[in-house]
Structure formats: structure tokens, C-alpha cells
Structure prediction request, 417 residues.
Amino acid sequence: MERMQAPEELLDKKERGGAADLLIAVTSPVDAEKLAGMGRSTFEELGSTTSGLRCVVAYPQSAGAPAELAMRDETPGLRFEPYTLSDGPPSVVPWLGSPAAFRAVESISSAVGATACVIVSPDLAAMDGATIQMLVDPVLQGRSDVCMPVYPSGPFDDLLNKSILSPLTRSLYGRRILFPVAPDFALSAHVLSALADATQYGIAGRRQEMVWPAVEASRVENRATQVHVAVRHEAQHEGLDLTTVLGGLLGALFGEMEGNASIWQRIRGSVAVPVMGTPAAMPAPREPVEVRPLLDSFRLGALNLPEVWSIILPPVTLLELKHLTRLAPEQFRIPDALWARIVYDFALAYRLHSISRSHILGALTPLYLGWVASYILEVGNAGQAAAEARLESLAQAFEAGKPYLLSRWRWPDRFNP
Prediction:
């Protein structure tokens, strides 16, 4: 697929000396009227601290909508730029931009000569001057190539990220990024270009299903930072079940593992990524999910999926899972080392096409619910500090188990009982 060409009027502006310092982009469908109002307000806030700022706000044009809908603006230095997505597969989850959207955004960024780009979620929760400033300052000041957010997250929030996405990304790529699949982040122009190239041409002949800024942030030549932001994204799973969300995210990440194997196989351990700013106030404590239905789902999976699990998991893991099904609820715990091996084995099965990839990802759902039950039972009412210490132990277990992944990746026919 050819990279989307930038609009001619933007190219003309660049030839006349550049059109923008900052590009703010939404990569999923958004309410244009809401974006127009919040974009102007955000620009005014930014302009109060940065004189002469030039900003372009890019958003996907919905089919059949007038290009100038709600976007006429006479504010000096601010421009709204709609773009049309080329044909291609949608994002694996609706609130994260598709690769085609990032290619379109990169074309606009290149055309206007932007120094930095901030991607914001289509719910626009991060669309305010203070948040945009915190994300983009490290990039504009030349101190960072990728700036990822740290959201306020209670003990029972963001468990898919905490149980798999964050510890797996940390173990693979050696950078401790707390929210590697964040819907808001800032990039330098050259990193945005690299991401667009990766989505266009793929890695090792594969076309990417998702954009992974945290993976790009982990490359040796790129500097990464994190910043505390007072942003809360409400659950956006409406119309999607857990298996769809989990399968979409992990299928994309497992695909990236295959494409980037030559990179992550050389990395050992992890290093901290600087976190700037003051932690935002934690949300009101959320009551933990009732454990019994989670355990029932885990046991039902063990009853209905033994043949599938036996294709994916080695015998020693199957024995440990069988033992877990016999425990009383108050005794139920999934050890960190076991959970890390399970995730690694599913990644390997995905790579090998041991069975249908959709069946592989679906078979992980009851195991994930079992992990959630185990975590809730262990953390209980211990508080934020105890929950964070518990999750740090889990991340360390993923790192300690990486030799297991490497061994099975290189010699996939050899089980390690």
C-alpha cells in the first residue's frame, strides 16, 4: 500500500516556511463538534505559555461528512485538518488507531513540518492544555523521543495491562513502561515516521496489526520518558466481550514478538524509564470483582478445554492447573512463575500456529480470569502500595522466566517439564 499523500495545501504551507510546531492527532472516529471546541480551548492554554505556537489538529473524516464541519477557525496559529483513512483492516480494538490512521497522521506531520506529535484517545479525556503540555514538553525540549503516560490506577484497575501487557513488554524489550498500550502519548517526528514505515512495510515481511509506541521507545537509539497525567479513560469495551479485547491486544503483541525476535532475544533484564511529574490523585477505590464467577470460568475452561490446553501447554503446567481446580476458593493462587510460563507458551503456540490462532487466544481467557481471581484473593484490602509491590514481583517473574521463553522459542519441539 502506498503511503497516503499529504494534502496539497499543507505541502504549500511547508514550502512557505512550515505550518506547525505541534501536531495533535486523533486516530479513531471522534465527535467533530466536541473536538473543535476542546481543540481551541487546548490551543489557548498552550499558547499562554508558548508564544508563537503553531498547531495542527488532525482527525479522521467520517464518510459523507463535510470536510469543514465545525472546524472553521480564525485563531492564528491553529488549524484543523481532516483526513480520510485508506482501505485496510480496522484497529484490533476500536479506541486504538489503525495502522492506516498512523500512516495518514505521519503524512500530515511530514507535510506541516511538525517537531512533535501527540496522539489522544477519541474520548478526548487527555485533550486539555496541561496534559498535552506534560506529554509533549520532553519531546519538544529534545529530552525524549517517546513520552508515555502514567495514569492513576487503583489496585483493581487495568488488570489486563498489569497482568500481561506491561510485564511482557518489560521482559521482552527491557524498558519498564507502565502503560505500553496507552491511547495517549507523544512522539518525535522521526519516531512517528519509523512507526508509519513499520505499519506500511511490516517487519520480517509481516504487516502490523497495531501500533506499538512502547516497542519503538525500547529501541536503543530512542530515548523514552513517562509522565504522570490526571487522565481517566472510562471502560470502552461496549459491544466487545473480554475474549475479543484480550484476543485483539495479545494477538497483535504476539505477532510483534515474532517480527521483533532478533531484537528481544538479545535483551536481558530491564532498566527503569524516567517518570516525571507528580502522581495524580487515585480514583475512588473500586470494589473488587466477585471472585466466585471468575473461579467458575477458570474451572469450566479446565473442564472444556483440556485438548486445546494440551496442545499449547507442557505437561508440568497442565498438572499444576489440574491441582488448582481442586483448591478451595480461599486457597486458590496462581504462582507468578506459572503465570509467566503460561503467557510465554501461548505466545509460542501463536507463533507456531499449533491450532487456529483464534482458538489459541480464546483458550487463554479462562486462564486470565483465574489469574484475576488469584490476584484479588491475594491483594484483598491490602492497599495501593501492597498492590504495586505485588505487581512488581510479577514483572520480575516474567524477567526471570525469559530464558524459558528463549529456549522454547529456539527449540519449540522440546517441552520443559
About this structure: Confidence is low (pLDDT under 50) at residues 1-17, 202-206. Residues 357-379 form the longest helix (23 residues).
